[in-house]
Write a structure and sequence with these properties.
By secondary structure, the protein is of the alpha/beta class. Helices cover 42% and strands 15% of the residues. The chain has one domain: Aldolase class I (TIM Barrel, Alpha-Beta Barrel). Bound molecules: 3-hydroxy-3-methylglutaryl-coenzyme A and magnesium ion.
Length: 298
Amino acid sequence: MSLPKQVRLVEVGPRDGLQNEAGELIPTATKIELINRLGNAGVGYIEAASFVSPKWVPQMGDAAEVLAGIDRLPGVTYAALTPNLKGLEGALAAGIEEVAVFTAVSESFTQKNINCSVAESLERFDPLLERAHAEGLRVRGYVSTTLGCPYEGEIAPAAVARVADTLYQMGCFEISLGDTIGVGTPLKAKKMLEAVAGKVPIEHLAAHFHDTYGQALANLLAVLQEGLAIIDASVAGLGGCPYAKGASGNVASEDVVYMLHGMGVETGIDLDRLIDAGRYISTALGRANGSKVALACG
Ligand code: HMG
Ligand code: MG
């Protein structure tokens, strides 16, 4: 089996995970502690917050305070989601190092998530990319619903490739392919990746798989075998998406790291410390830990 020697883990728990917590607002101090623990576990890339409308996603309303409070560890990139120029300005003021824009293959999902069409979202990103690049920031691009849409069902791999290629041509340095509602299965994931990798070099592609149907690790193995080496994951399997009915958390970071280390693939992450970070946030939120590895190591 051919696998990459090294995988870069993009920890999205503080953003993708926490954005979806129902009920009371999570204290800023709890988010800061989580991010610091992740950094101390050796995670090199942390999506720490989201500069979106607090009316749409209340849990991300304290993005500036979170970024002001964290320890900026050397060697760790702290990133944030920015849907438009207003979000980018907020991120710049907070001293962010990298931002991400997000759209989808499916029109219905895009309307529900960011209140515009796919084409309009791409138009919005143009000035954002220009401004970010002028400030020396790299911009990541997310494509949601790559393996299925909660409103439109099946998604054609060629359609995923078109949107991913457009973001790449516009200047996004990395394209993260989201199985937003976790419906994919390994052969579908492989075919989708093959279609996208026909347009965008595979070293610029990341897998962002939610684990709603318990398929995420199998899907990850399928794309790793194709040569993909960047994986988005969420500590303790936190999260979901407020505009994707039925979406559960991302694949748990602990489970991904355990699988990779077990196959001799390096991540630079200390699994015990990562488990500790997952336990901390699960206890703080009063929710069950979504990492099987964390439960097994209990
Ligand atoms: P809109 O209502 O169309 O925006 O929302 P608007 O431009 O008409 O502005 C309306 C109000 O929002 C105005 O305030 C703006 O100032 C304000 P008002 O005058 O009413 O007081 N506003 C903002 N405030 C703060 N920060 C901003 C901002 N922009 C406008 N950046 C908008 C459009 C994109 C803003 C909205 O739809 C939004 O914020 N959506 C966020 C949705 C979201 O965060 N979803 C979750 C992330 S995506 C995801 O999870 C998928 C992913 O994980 C991959 C996968 O799993 O597939 C990435
Ligand atoms: Mg997601």
